[in-house]
């Protein structure tokens, strides 16, 4: 961007893909189902088609979110033309697991100012509540379903992102 251009930043929120039902093991270790893997790859292909290739990925450290991100990345590279530019910086954040919306917002605020597009892969209810916090008027009242993507845009630097400060400009439910 040149000095005269207003910088627009894009925050893409993604609820992890369909995971196995809880068992006796730790919730953080739940894996994606076959449908979840296919849906996550479809989410990546949609992001690539929209030109929403992330500079930074913040991903919960839970197994199902890590698997979601891996399949999204495969979906982005498997689409026509593949991703432009370099691979994103990926941050696995234990703090994104069972996070409140303010906690997720604080994670986004730590992103370098030069990053134009950020992808946050997280869990409900936190990720749905973050979307509603950023755009209370247009957020889906039902919340995000598995593999739902919500695209928010802001002119504010990441460090100054505030509630109500990033309108929703697009949304998509990825199904593979």
Order of helices and strands: EHEHEHEHEE
Shape: globular
- Approximately how much helix is present in the residues? 25-40%
Could you tell me the strand content as a percent range? 15-25%
Q: How many helical stretches? A: 4
Major sheet size, sense and barrel closure: 6 strands, mixed
Chart the SSEs and their pairings.
Layout: E1 9-15, H1 34-50, E2 56-60, H2 63-78, E3 89-93, H3 101-109, E4 117-122, H4 126-134, E5 148-154, E6 168-173
Parallel strand pairs: 1-4, 2-3, 2-4
Antiparallel strand pairs: 1-5, 5-6
Task: Give structural notes.
There is one protein chain. This protein is of the alpha/beta class. The chain has 4 helices and 6 strands. It has helices spanning 34-50, 63-78, 101-109, 126-134, and strands at residues 9-15, 56-60, 89-93, 117-122, 148-154, 168-173. The chain has a 6-stranded mixed β-sheet with strand order 3-2-4-1-5-6, with helices on both faces. Helix 2 links the parallel strand 2 (56-60) and strand 3 (89-93). Helix 1 crosses helix 2 (63-78) and helix 3 (101-109) crosses helix 4 (126-134). The longest helix is centred in the first third of the chain and has 17 residues, at 34-50. The chain is globular. Residues 1-5 and 80-84 have low confidence and may be disordered.
